C-alpha cells in the first residue's frame, strides 16, 4: 500500500517515518520548499530524538521520500494522511483553511478511489467538510477518516510505534479494514484500535487534551496550597495517584503547560462549546490558572529582587516547553523572559536544542549561550525552566562561582533545598522546603 502524508511537521514527519519503518512505501509532501529540500538531503527541520536516524535509514532503503509537489503524491498514494497545521483564529476557533486547501487539491487530482485520513486536530464536523469538498470536485469514491494523533514531542517515535490506543473514525468498512491493516504493525493488542464514527473521533482528541490540561492546572493549584501549608505535594501526588481511578501521570507540579496543542485546543473547544451555548467554565478556569502559572517564576524573581530589575542579569536554563524538543510554541519560558525584559532585566539563556528557535524569536533582545555554565556569568539568579537531563545534576561549585549572586529559582523542583542552602545558595522552588523527601 502506498501512503501519502501532507505536512512534514512534528506529526507528519513522525507519521511518515514510522509507517516507512514498518515496511510501507511513504511519500511526504509539504508546501514549505525549504523544509522539503532539507529533508531530501537528510537534514531534519525539527529536533525529535531518533527521528533523523529513522528518516535517513528509510530514505536510504527507498521506502520514504519527500516532495513539494502535492499532485505527484496524490497520484501515487492509496491512503493520504493530512497532518497540516490547524492554528488558532483570533476568536480562538481552529483555522482549518490548510485542511480545506489540501482537500480541494485532493479532489481535483485524485483519479481513483482514495482513503483520506485526518491526523491534524480538527473541530467536530471537519471530516464532513473534507468529504463535501472532495466530492464536489471528484467523480471518484473517497473514504474520509479521522485518526487523531496523541504523540508527545520528545517521545514521538515511541509514542507512535507503541500507542496506548489508536482512534479510528471511519465512514466505511473498507476504510476501517484499510486503516486496521496499517496500524496492526504497531499494535500488540488490536483491541486497542478503537473504531468509531467521525465526530466521536474528532471529539476524542479535544476531550483528551482538555482532560490532561485540567490535571495540570489542578495539581498546580493543589501545589500552591501545599507550599503555604507545608504539606508535601510530592507525597500528595503519590497519595492520590496510587488510586487507580486517578493514576500518576500529568500530576507533576510545574510552570504550567505549553506547547502547540493544549492551549490552542482548549481555546478551540471553548469556542465550540460557547457557539452551542454550553457552559465552558471548567475549561476557562483551567486556561486562566495556566496563564497565571506561567508567571510564577517571574513572580519569584521580583519577590526576591523587587519590581525594578534594571542592572540585574537573570540566567535561564531551558527554553523549550518540555525536554527533548526544540519546540518553543507557547513555552512558559517565553512569558518569563518577556516579563523580565519588561522590568529592566537583561536575560541570558541556555537550552540544549532550542537556541536556534530562541534566536528567531528574541534575536538580540536576549543573549543566548551554547554553554550551560557560561550563561551564568555575572547572573543574579538562575531560573530553571525546563527539566533537560543536563540540568539535573550540575556542578554547583561552578554554578556558584560563575554567578554574581547565588540564587536559584527552580520551576521543575529538581534540586534538594537543604543541600543547596548548605552550599551557600538561596533556593526557591514550587514545593515547601520543609517537606522535601
Ligand atoms: P507543524 O506546524 O509542525 O507542521 C505542519 C506542516 O504542515 C508544516 O510543515 C507546514 O508547512 C505544512 N503545511 C501547512 N499547510 C500546508 C498545505 N496546504 N499543504 C502542504 N503542507 C502544508 O504542526 P504539527 O505540530 O505537526 O501539528 C500538525 C497538526 O497535528 C495540528 O493540527 C496539531 O494540532 C496536531 N497535533 C500536533 C501534535 C504535536 O505534538 N505537535 C500532537 C498531536 C496532534
Question: What does this molecule look like?
Answer:
- By secondary structure, the protein is α/β, with parallel strands linked by helices.
- The chain folds into 3 domains: 2-196, 3-Layer(aba) Sandwich (Rossmann fold), CATH 3.40.50; 206-292, N-(1-d-carboxylethyl)-l-norvaline Dehydrogenase, domain 2, CATH 1.10.1040; 294-435, NAD(P)-binding Rossmann-like Domain (Rossmann fold).
- 43% of the residues lie in helices and 14% in strands.
- The strands form 3 sheets. The chain has a 6-stranded parallel sheet, sandwiched between helices. The chain has a 6-stranded parallel sheet with strand order 11-10-9-12-13-14.
- β12 (381-384), α16 (396-402) and β13 (407-410) form a beta-alpha-beta unit.
- The longest helix is centred in the middle third of the chain and has 31 residues, at 198-228.
- The chain is globular, with a radius of gyration of 23 Å.
- The protein starts with a strand and ends in an 8-residue tail after the last strand.
- The mean pLDDT is 96.
- The structure holds nicotinamide-adenine-dinucleotide.
- The site of nicotinamide-adenine-dinucleotide has 26 residues, from α1 and α5.
- The secondary structure category is alpha/beta
Shape: globular
CATH architectural arrangement of the largest domain: 3-Layer(aba) Sandwich
* E-strand count: 14
Helix content: 40-55%
Distance between the termini: 54 Å
How is the largest sheet built, in terms of strand order? 3-2-1-4-5-6
Work out the helix count: 17
Instruction: Work out the count of structural domains.
Output: 3
Most strands sheet:
6 strands, parallel
Low-confidence stretches: none
| Residue share in β-strands | 5-15%
> Are any ligands bound, and if so which?
nicotinamide-adenine-dinucleotide
Radius of gyration: 23 Å
CATH topology of the largest domain: Rossmann fold
Amino acid at each position: 500500500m502506498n501512503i501519502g502524508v501532507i505536512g512534514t511537521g512534528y506529526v507528519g514527519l513522525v507519521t511518515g517515518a514510522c509507517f516507512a519503518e514498518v515496511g510501507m512505501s511513504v511519500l511526504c509532501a509539504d508546501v514549505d520548499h525549504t523544509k522539503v529540500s532539507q529533508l531530501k538531503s537528510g537534514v531534519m527541520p525539527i529536533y525529535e530524538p531518533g527521528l533523523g536516524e529513522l528518516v535517513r535509514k528509510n530514505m536510504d532503503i527507498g521506502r520514504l521520500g519527500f516532495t513539494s509537489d502535492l499532485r505527484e503524491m496524490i497520484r501515487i498514494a492509496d491512503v493520504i494522511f493530512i497532518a497540516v497545521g490547524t492554528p488558532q483564529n483570533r476568536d480562538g476557533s481552529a483555522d482549518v483553511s490548510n485542511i480545506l486547501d489540501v482537500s480541494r487539491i485532493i479532489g481535483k487530482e485524485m483519479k481513483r478511489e482514495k482513503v483520506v485520513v485526518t491526523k491534524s486536530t480538527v473541530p467536530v464536523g471537519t471530516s464532513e467538510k473534507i468529504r463535501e469538498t472532495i466530492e464536489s470536485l471528484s467523480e471518484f469514491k473517497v473514504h474520509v477518516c479521522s485518526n487523531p494523533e496523541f504523540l508527545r514531542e520528545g517521545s514521538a517515535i515511541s509514542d507512535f510505534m507503541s500507542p496506548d490506543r489508536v482512534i479510528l473514525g471511519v465512514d466505511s468498512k473498507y476504510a476501517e479494514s484499510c486503516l486496521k491493516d496499517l496500524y496492526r504493525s504497531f499494535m500488540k493488542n488490536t483491541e486497542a484500535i478503537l473504531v468509531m464514527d467521525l465526530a466521536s473521533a474528532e471529539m476524542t482528541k479535544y476531550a483528551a487534551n482538555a482532560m490532561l490540561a485540567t490535571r495540570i492546572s489542578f495539581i498546580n493549584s493543589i501545589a500552591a496550597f501545599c507550599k503555604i501549608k507545608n504539606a508535601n505535594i510530592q507525597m500528595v501526588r503519590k497519595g492520590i495517584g496510587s488510586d487507580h481511578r486517578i493514576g500518576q501521570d500529568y500530576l507533576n507540579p510545574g510552570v504550567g503547560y505549553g506547547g502547540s496543542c493544549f492551549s490552542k485546543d482548549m481555546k478551540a473547544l471553548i469556542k465550540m462549546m460557547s457557539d452551542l451555548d454550553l457552559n465552558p467554565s471548567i475549561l476557562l478556569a483551567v486556561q486562566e490558572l495556566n496563564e497565571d502559572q506561567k508567571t510564577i517564576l517571574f513572580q519569584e524573581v521580583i519577590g526576591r529582587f523587587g519590581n525594578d530589575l534594571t542592572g540585574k542579569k537573570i540566567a535561564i536554563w531551558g527554553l523549550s516547553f518540555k525536554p527533548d524538543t526544540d519546540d518553543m510554541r507557547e513555552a512558559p519560558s517565553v512569558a518569563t523572559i518577556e516579563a523580565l525584559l519588561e522590568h529592566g532585566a537583561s536575560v541570558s539563556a541556555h537550552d540544549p536544542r532550542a537556541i536556534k528557535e530562541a534566536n528567531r524569536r528574541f534575536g538580540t533582545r536576549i543573549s543566548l549561550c551554547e554553554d550551560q555554565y557560561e550563561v551564568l556569568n555575572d547572573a543574579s539568579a538562575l531560573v530553571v525552566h525546563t527539566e533537560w537531563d543536563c540540568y539535573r545534576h550540575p556542578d554547583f561549585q561552578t554554578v556558584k562561582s560563575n554567578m554574581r549572586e547565588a540564587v536559584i529559582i527552580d520551576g521543575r523542583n529538581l534540586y534538594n533545598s537543604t543541600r543547596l542552602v548548605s552550599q551557600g545558595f538561596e533556593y526557591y522552588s514550587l514545593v515547601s522546603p520543609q517537606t522535601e523527601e
